[in-house]
Structure formats: C-alpha cells, structure tokens
Write a structure and sequence with these properties.
The complex is a heterodimer of chains A (111) and B (115). Chain A has strands at 3-6, 11-14, 19-21, 23-26, 32-38, 44-50, 56-59, 62-65, 75-77, 86-93, 99-101, 105-110. Chain A starts with a strand and ends with a strand. Helix content of chain A is 0%, strand content 51%. In chain B, the strands form two sheets. In chain B, strands 2, 4, 5, 6, 9, 10 and 11 form a seven-stranded mixed sheet that branches. In chain B, strands 1-3-8-7 form a four-stranded antiparallel sheet, with no helix packed on it. The chains are: A mainly beta (111), B mainly beta (115). Chain A binds chain B through residues 4, 32, 41-46, 51, 89, 91, 93, 97-99, 101-104, and chain B through 4, 40-45, 48, 56, 91, 93, 98-100, 103-104, 106-109.
Chain lengths: 111, 115
C-alpha cells in the first residue's frame, strides 16, 4: 500500500542555517504531496503542497519539489529561525483521497 | 478565521472508564475526520464522515470506540472502556468535501492519558 518515509529527528540547527528534511513515498498512480507543521500545543497546519510532478510548493520561506523520478518531496528552507521549531509531517493523498502520513520530524532551532 | 474546535484539550482517565471527545468543524464543512496520533508517529485515520454518514471506519476499533455526527455538524468520539494503549492525541479535522482538491483543517486535538 501507499506509504511515506521521512527522516528521523530531532534535527537540531542553529538560527540562519539551511534546512533539509527528507521525505520519500511509495504510491500507485499520481498522489498529491503535502507538508504539515505542528507547533507545540497546536493542531496540524498545512505548510505547502504539490499536486503533480515537478510542481514546487512554497510558503513562509519553505519549499518542496515533487520529484516523481526519485519519489521524493524534500522540505527546504534557506535560513531557519527559532520560530520554525516544530514537528514537520510529510503526507500523501492517493486515489482514495485519504491522507497517508510520515512519522514526523522534530526540528529544533537554537539561537 | 474559522477554526475547528475540540474539547477537552486534555483528559486523564483511569482504564476501564468511559471517555468522550467533542469536535465542532468549520461551518459548512461537510466532511469530518477523527485521527489518532500516538507520540512519535503520524496521525492514523479512525473514522471519516460525509455529513451525518460514516464513509470509512475501517481502522476504528469498534469493540470499544464509537463515533457519531447525528446532525451532520458536530461530532463525538467515545471510548468505552479505555485501555492504557489508548493514550494518544485525538485530532479532528474538517474539509468542504472529500475530494482530492479539498484541504483538511485540523483542530488543536485532545491529549488523552489513560492511567
């Protein structure tokens, strides 16, 4: 069945560092891909999405490109801030429209 | 901005007791989801409603869990009896529809601790 694998955390970086959180997927057909963020004590928020191959989703300085050839949707940000500290989830929505989630990656940004 | 409301935010209960969670979706959202999120894992869909009808409850442990959305608006998820393994975050989400173009909006969740 469909699945999502993302890098284990925690990922600890200094402020202004470059961020990459890896996400790969297994799916039949052409899923839509998502990154969600969960700040401490809050619910999940959609960060960005891409619905077809080579699409780039972007929001709040974060970017991810839908790479069908490598079945990947890695999350990147050029300069992280302390306020980016959160748990990031990669997810796909397949042919049955249900979301399949990765395990989440905790990001810690130190000033 | 409209939000999904959930209550309570935190619940501590003893095993074998009954517990209930409430969710009020964004107004006009026909589709409502209940997820369970175990610490360190991604959310797992428990049940999906379209209006007042259950669309998918294949992952709902029906011997102890029940969910209803009687008027197609707010929803209640119940566990009876609670077990230690039920300790988790219970998330509610809603969307305008169930199709692929509709974004799911999440509530803040209810953190359940079973002792």
């Amino acid at each position: 069945g469909d699945s999502v694998t993302q890098m284990e955390g925690p990922v600890t970086l200094s402020e202004e560092a470059f961020l990459t959180i890896n996400c790969t997927y297994t799916a039949t057909g052409y899923p839509s891909l998502f990154w969600y963020v969960q700040y401490p004590g809050e619910g999940l928020q959609l960060l960005l999405k891409a619905t077809k191959a080579d699409d780039k989703g972007s929001n709040k300085g974060f970017e991810a490109t839908y790479r069908k050839e490598t079945t990947s949707f890695h999350l990147e940000k050029g300069s992280v801030q302390v306020s980016d500290s959160a748990v990031y989830f990669c997810a796909l929505r397949g042919s049955n429209y249900q979301l399949i989630w990765g395990a989440g990656t905790k990001l810690i940004i130190k000033p | 901005e409209a939000e999904v409301a959930q209550s309570p935010r935190y619940k501590i209960t003893e095993k074998s007791q009954a517990v209930a969670f409430w969710c009020d979706p964004i107004s006009g959202h026909a589709t409502l989801y209940w997820y369970r999120q175990i610490l360190g894992q991604g959310p797992e869909l428990l049940v999906q409603f379209q209006d007042e009808s259950v669309v998918d409850d294949s992952q709902l442990p029906k011997d102890r869990f029940s969910a209803e959305r009687l008027k197609g608006v707010d929803s209640t998820l119940k566990i009876q009896p609670a077990e230690l393994g039920d300790s988790a975050m219970y998330l509610c989400a809603s969307s305008l529809g169930a199709g692929g173009s509709y974004e799911q909006y999440f509530g803040p969740g209810t953190r359940l601790t079973v002792t």
